[in-house]
Amino acid sequence: MANIAVARIKREFREVVKSEEAAKCNIRVELIDDNFTELRGEIAGPPETPYEGGKFLLEIKIPETYPFNPPKVKFMTKIWHPNISSVTGAICLDILKDQWAAAMTLRTVLLSLQALLSAAEPDDPQDAVVAKQYKENRHLWEKTARHWAQEYAEAPKSKKDDEFYDKVSQLAEMGFDRHKALTALSAHEWNMERATQDLIS
Amino acid sequence: MKPGGRGAGYESVGMAGQSTGQTAPGTNPQVHRQQEEMTEGWDVLWDSPLESKYECPICLMGLREPVQTNCGHRFCRYCILKSIRQDICPRFPIENSLFTGDQIFRENFAKREIFPLRVRFSNKGSKEGMELSFLETHLSTCNFAFVECPLECGDTFWRKDIPDHLKNDCPRRLVKCLHCFKEIPFDHQEIHLEECPTVVRPCEFCQQELTNEQMKRHIANECPRALVLCMFSTVGCNVEKMERRNLAEHLQEFTQVHLRLLLNGLQTLKDAQIHRAGNHSDPHSLPARMTEVPYDPRRHLPLLHEQQTLFLPPGQAAVTTQGSHGPFGSEVPHAVDQHSGGDGITRLSHSMQQMVMSPGPFQPRLGETTWTSTEEREHYAEQVIPVTRVSPYPAVTSPYTAAAALGAHAYAHMEGSSGYRTDGSSVSSPSRDSGAPSQDSGAPRSEDGSMADARALRTKVHTQETRIVEQQHYIRELELKLGSLQEKYFELEEKTKEKMCNGTYIWRIKEYSKLRQQAINGEATVRHSLGFYTSYYGYKLCVRVNLNGVDSAHGTHISLFIHFMMGDNDDILEWPFQGKITLSILDQNSNPNQQAKHITETLVAKPSYAAFQRPTTLRNHKGFGYMEFALLRSLESGQYIKNDTLIIRCTVQPQ
């Protein structure tokens, strides 16, 4: 990898580790390989959002042309969010695409992602199903997103979500994969019949 | 010449180049010098932590050659220029607003503030603290500074280790050749052994031990086992290369074929002549017309002479000098010498006629068996010897073979007659046509018998000729068919090649120095590669290079662009093109211990640029790439040009 990219990542890595946010356990990065081409990021679900209390893992790949091209970032933790693919974890965020600027760093990227979790942009969606739900049934979206966070991001559970757990468990007992069942239910407003239909077809 | 359109890419890159030129007018040469040495910020150990205002937001190191932008931010000059270069529509790295040109200024104030800061040179061996401003000077003497090998082997060492490296390890250090005592670079030893004139090697064909100096001549002229091409390949004999010692045999076996080929060649010549001369008085007087053919006989005649030495292996030389061997062995040169006063083409046609007329010793009569034993040959020779004695031509008087002599005799008649007639008249009265000498000086012979013989032979020759002409036509038809098939094949091959590269195209620019000179002289400033596809059903592009740069990069940088071309799949592809394009100049240094330092730039397609729209012409006028791809000077330092060849790699990855 180009010299400048490695030198930059080393410095940015230090910057994140030393940052205030890291001290508050809001963001974290760790190295995957010695070449600084791949990193693992982690952001905490922002307070007063369905993601609160969750920990979201990110895959960060550094291109050779870094910092002149943005790092490739996607969610490894499954998440229900209009701007993040519920299937692949791909993120739709302008600064990771054409609005990237060479002066941005890992820290700013992680903080921007955190901000994205607090303020979704349903008009520029990555996952159309989620975005539609977000716009048409905000309450259901919130519940679903919270449920996903509990299921995948270790967010604390609360009693009132038991209904969703039951539905997923029912489908799982029928022999469906738990994650597929959850995805189908989420996509069909937790309607058992339609979800089952979707799973069978 | 102006480049083929203002490529959007270099337009913006050029802007960066110009803007620096404008901010510091008059210092242009220096700017280029600095660019060469420039890197990102100061990577040193600061005595006290560096304040963030002295840190470049791009490389996060100490500002080197600081510049300020309109919006009040500081960067290393290298970093901001690189940032602008990387991006197709350049933006300021911090505010992300569009960068529109002349907006970078030297920040000498910051420079003055940074220079007095105390630093420690971050190499292990060095512990001295100093002011940053002294670092450069220190680096030029410090024993622990990394220095490139002065012989440009590409390795880097601590300065103190350089002498040792030059003495013991450097692959480019000079060593003495044990054979010729010339000094040669260490890593050239093997190559040198191949060339060293005093080294003795076995010939690759016959194993005879010879020095390199002798080898070339040996293989070109002497070696009996060297592979040579039949000399009739120039007229179309397509037999594969054979060992020199087998050439004579081939010539014997293929006499008929060669004759046919020669005749064919002659025919073509004749046709061309008729075509040019228009309505010539007598289309049948071949020799007369041949003399007018604007045709360089030197191309063919020396060849005939050469053959003499070429195809006679030492073992058979004696036989040949006795004259019993093949029509070319000695007849042709004789005949050629005979007519040396005449025009070259006349000579050629004479010798060819002589050959055509003579059935030769190998196949005396059409349809009959060839000579199988020497007795038979002698028997035949006895029968006709009287005829050969009376012939006035030296070529005939030497006792080659009877049939050859007879052929030559017949030729003598032709020579004497007013023209070459293929109808019966000249054949029926050859003795009268040829005039007295052959008969008057005659030794006793049975005139009727030999005349009948000769007549019969001539009739046969005539039929044979007719058949040959027929076959020629057939062959020509086949040749035409073959030609069109070959063309189709090449076309297909070309197509497959350009489609099968899977988006990575390697362009070898041979004769770089010549092409570069042409670029400097302005004869051909721009060159395009062949087209290639990103995948079998992908986009078609080509690479364009300006070997002497273009516009503001003229004379300093090599410029590299890609141009989209009309492809077979444009209708099913998505336009504008989106994806990544990587352009590289390959490092050809073959030293395995050392990582290749390719010059590589990657760019991401911007859909708004004309360069990425669907081409409406064969090749999109707008290209995209870098005006200042690499310094010409750094290219010529060696590792990027080997054997006068520059290798460019272009990888296109659609999204």
Automatic annotation (TrEMBL), chain A:
One of its GO terms (biological process) is protein polyubiquitination. Interacts with RNF138/NARF. Interacts with BRCA1. The active site is at C92 (glycyl thioester intermediate). GO terms for molecular function: ATP binding; ubiquitin conjugating enzyme activity. InterPro entries: UBA, UBA-like_sf, UBC, UBQ-conjugating_AS, UBQ-conjugating_enzyme/RWD. Its EC number is 2.3.2.23. SMART domains: UBA, UBCc. It is an enzyme of class 2 (transferase). It holds the Pfam family UBA. Coiled coil: none annotated. The gene is LOC118418998. GO terms for cellular component: nucleus. This is Ubiquitin-conjugating enzyme E2 K. Keywords: ATP-binding, Nucleotide-binding, Transferase, Ubl conjugation pathway. Residues 4-154 form the UBC core domain. The lineage of its organism: Eukaryota, Metazoa, Chordata, Cephalochordata, Leptocardii. CDD domains: UBA_II_E2_UBE2K_like, UBCc_UBE2K. Belongs to the ubiquitin-conjugating enzyme family. It comes from Branchiostoma floridae (Florida lancelet). Residues 159-201 form the UBA domain.
From TrEMBL, chain B:
It is found in: Cytoplasm. PROSITE patterns: MATH, ZF_RING_1, ZF_RING_2, ZF_TRAF. Pfam families: TRAF-mep_MATH, zf-C3HC4_2, zf-TRAF. Residues 17-32 have a biased composition (Polar residues). Residues 137-185, 192-240 form the TRAF-type domain. One of its GO terms (biological process) is lipopolysaccharide-mediated signaling pathway. The keyword Cytoplasm applies. Residues 1-37, 416-451 are annotated as: Disordered. A zinc finger (TRAF-type) spans 137-185, 192-240. Residues 468-495 form a coiled coil. Keywords: Coiled coil, Cytoplasm, Metal-binding, Repeat, Zinc, Zinc-finger. InterPro entries: MATH/TRAF_dom, TNF_rcpt-assoc_TRAF_met, TRAF-like, TRAF1-6_MATH_dom, Znf_RING, Znf_RING/FYVE/PHD, Znf_RING_CS, Znf_TRAF. GO terms for molecular function: signaling adaptor activity; ubiquitin protein ligase activity; zinc ion binding. Residues 423-438 have a biased composition (Low complexity). Residues 502-652 form the MATH domain. One of its GO terms (cellular component) is cytoplasmic side of plasma membrane. Residues 56-90 form the RING-type domain. This is TNF receptor-associated factor 6-B-like. The lineage of its organism: Eukaryota, Metazoa, Chordata, Cephalochordata, Leptocardii. The gene is LOC118414689.
